[in-house]
Amino acid sequence: MGWDCITVLCSSEPGDQRALARRLIVEAAAELGVRAQVRSEASGQPVISGSPRPLHVSITHTRGLVAVAVTGLGAVGLDAEPLRQLDAIPLAAKWFNAAEVRWLGEVEPGARSTGFLQLWVRKEAVGKALGHGLRRHGLRREVPLPQEPERMAPVPGLEPLAVTAQLWQGGHLLGIACAIQAPILLR
Question: Which UniProt keywords are given for this protein, alphabetically ordered (predicted)?
């Protein structure tokens, strides 16, 4: 796919998550023909050097997963959550906007936890792409509702920023946001 996509690499290897994330960034850059070096800014944000064009990167880690997103297309955000049962409606009422709470209420009860997490990872990924995470009312920020089949969709009011949620190996949801809609290479 190359420079016109978002490369997302995931690993469930145990060990040092920072070292694993750096290795995944180098692997993703290598797929673009870049011999990358990775350093961290004072904020902790990874920076890739050695590329003929700017590369944007986002890292996430959670129980059992480290993942990185790398692209030359612009700002990128990545979040991951393990699938699990939640008391979805009360949590949504506390954190999400009214339209999202209504949508979640219409979801089959057995799928509400997944629906909640699909919204959550979208919001986290958008916040990371914007550079401020969930601060500035990030959980109330409107994101596109889950759809079938799942695909990148514009974030209302922030177009052309787009976001999606993807299932990884049946155990985690990944939220992926990028400055523009683009194909995703997920491994």
Answer: Transferase
Q: Which amino acid appears at position 89 of this protein?
A: I
| Alpha-carbon Rg for the chain in angstroms | 16
User: How many other β-carbons are positioned within 10 Å of the β-carbon of residue 37?
Assistant: 14
**What class is the 2-186 domain?**
alpha beta
User: Could you list the pLDDT tens digit for every one of the 187 residues in the chain?
Assistant: 688 999 999 999 998 999 999 999 999 999 888 998 998 888 777 888 888 899 999 999 998 999 999 999 999 999 999 999 999 999 999 999 999 999 999 999 999 999 999 999 999 999 999 988 777 677 788 999 998 888 999 999 999 999 999 999 879 999 999 999 999 999 9
Q: Give the sign of the dihedral formed by CA 68, CA 69, CA 70, CA 74.
A: negative
Residue 39: which of 53, 60, 27, 21 has the closest Cα?
21
- On whether the pTM is more than 0.90, the answer is yes
